[in-house]
Every structure is written in C-alpha cells, then in structure tokens.
Amino acid sequence: MSTAIELESLPKLASGKVRDLYNIDDKSLLFVTTDRISAYDVIMANGVPLKGAVLTQLSAHWFKVLSEKIPGLKTHFISLNPPAALSDGDKEKVRGRSMQVRKLKVFPIEVIVRGYITGSAWNEYKKEGTVHGLAMPAGLQQCSRFPQPIYTPSTKAELGKHDENISPEQAAKIVGDKYASRIEELALKVYSAGAEYAAERGIIIADTKFEFGLDEETDDIVLIDEVLTPDSSRFWPADEYEVGRDQNSFDKQFLRNWLTDNGLKYKDGVAMPEKIAEATGARYREAFKKLTGKTLEEALEAL
What we know:
By secondary structure, the protein is an alpha+beta fold.
C-alpha cells in the first residue's frame, strides 16, 4: 500500500487528499495517485490497497471513452507513461498510478452533476424541497431519478475544511459569467455520456464530481483531474436499484456508512479496520472491471 510517495527526480508542487502533483516542465505536470482515501473531507489514517492504480487507470479509460463520445472535448490527459525525467527508482514508485497531464488554470469550484437524489441533496430536499437552493418536483423519494440531470456545484475547500453546496448563480460569481454556462453545459454533457456508457455495463452513476480548467491560450474549457471514478462518483449496481432506500454501491459509501454508524464522521486520525479497507478496495476493483472489461491486474500488465 502506498499512502505516502516521495519522488526524488521531480519537484513536488502540492499534496491533496489523494494526489500529489509534481512539475515536469512549463506545460505539464505529473499526477501521482496514492492509496489514501478521504470521506467527509477527512483523510483516513490508513489507505486502500491499489486504490491509486484503480483511479488512475479508470480515469485514463474514461478520458479515451469520453473523447470518442463527445466531439471536441478537451481533456488534460497526455500519457500514462512516466516522464523521461524520472529516475528508475521513481518510475517504479509510480508504476500504474501516475499520469502526465497538461498544466492549466483550474476553476475553483467542484462541478457536481446529479442524476439521482441521494446524500446531501436528499437531506436538503427532505427539509426544504430544494437541492442546492433549486426548487425540485414534489414527491421525490430517496434515490429517485431526477427528470433530467442537474448541475449542483460546491465550493472547493482547502485541505482540512469542508466543501459547501452552492447554487449555480453563486458558482457563476466565482468563475465569472463568461465561463459559468459553458462549464454547466459541458458537465451535463460529460455526465450524460458517462452515465449512458456505464448503464450499458450494469452501473448507475447516481452523481459525480468533475473539475475543469482553462486553456488560457485557446480559451477552451478542459476536463481535468480524475473523472467518473469510485472516489468522485456514486456508482450503484443497476440490477439491485430500488427507489426509496439507500443503495448498495461500488464507491466509498461503504466507508461513509461505517464512519457514520460508529460516530466517526468528520473526525481526524481515524484508521479503518482492515476488513473495511479490503472491502472498499474490492468494490473499487469490481467497478473497474465492469466499466473497462478487464481486471486491474490485466490493465497494469499492459503498461
């Protein structure tokens, strides 16, 4: 398990909840995905084996699929190959869990798209009849499908703080009117393409979080970060879906439920029991196989 990875041959720019960013040159970065896992914006004391490889390989798969499904889609993905500047030792550390990406200006919001009502959206709806301040149809049940996917952004909190749900109007004030509608339109298009692809493979994408960047040379909105992974999305098995209750999932809802049940929500320094870490990892790898058609081991052998 690799929850802390330090490279000697490239300068580190930043560490996030899961990823470490290293500078390659003026135009590119190396994303290194660790086995760290966070829930409720708190990083667990231990990680999930091979999680970093799952997220990296699945994101690379999605960048390819989505680029084929959405003509003109721009992504930050360059290559799964390690950069030439890495030493042999560093290459081994990041094998299967790193990707070269374009260096872009990042829009400072979490771009969330919801196809089904669950999580914080369900909690708000029960109290107010709204989701992110947007009026919703009456009579929705837990995990109901929305009549159409909705764009529900949130703030992007600093490490250790919590994201806050905001309205599309509030998001527009943060990113600027020039880009707000383009981000919303693109996010809904990417979600719909991804949800259709996943549905054909037995997975419902209930909701997901995207991030976008700006290519300042071309003024293009670019899909960045990870995309449609078990860390950034709620994946439900389609054959078990039933309105009116919590769903089984291929994502970290398993971990969230354990934290909630044990009164550990939002607490720092929590270590998962081994069985929770292993069960979470197994669900991630099962989702990977359903979506890509191959096991993680097969994907890694092909590198």
